Amino acid sequence: MNQIVKDLMVPLSDYATIARGSTLYEAVLALENAKKDVERSVHPHWIVLVLDENKEVIGKLSQLTLLRALEPKTEHTAVVDRIAKFGFSSKFVAAMREENLHDGKAEDYLYTDPIAMEMKVEDFMLTLAENEFIDETTSLNSAVHQLTVRNRLSLLVTKKDKVVGVLRLSDVFSALIAAMKKVHK
């Protein structure tokens, strides 16, 4: 494969983004809207990028991040989080969490808490790590290696230190399958 990252990346202009200061609810809607637009690709977006006032990427929100932010936070959950650090089995910790998850709230209220919905995205977004970036001119072979070694589902694509797109594992894998099929006809 003689492709480079730029050939497979999703341009930033086509990606789900949200401004710093937006609420958790607005982030959920942005992700929902991005998933509706699957005509561009068979692989929907799984993350929302958070932009600052200069349209620079400062963080990201995955579906898992959003779910964690929506989970009710109680005094008991904080205690369980501290207990989990002392080496108790994951089964025991999970049972403790489940036992007190509802904390007297109705089941249908757990993920619709109006207070949680108004949290600002910068309060729970994932900040960017150094190993999440890849230059747009990097070979696809090198990109595959970086995705696997870094254990990432996506990398932010840069051009002169500015984020210009997202390289997703799903798109890379599709390209690899296509290349394999050409070789093994």
Automatic annotation (TrEMBL):
Q: Which UniProt keywords apply?
A: CBS domain
The record ties this protein, via Pfam families, to: CBS
User: Mind telling me which InterPro entries this protein's record contains?
Assistant: CBS_dom (IPR000644), CBS_dom_sf (IPR046342)
- List residues of the CBS domain: 9-79
Instruction: Indicate whether Iron-sulfur appears among the record's keywords.
Output: no
Is the keyword Ligase assigned to this protein? no
Could you identify this protein by its name?
A: CBS domain-containing protein
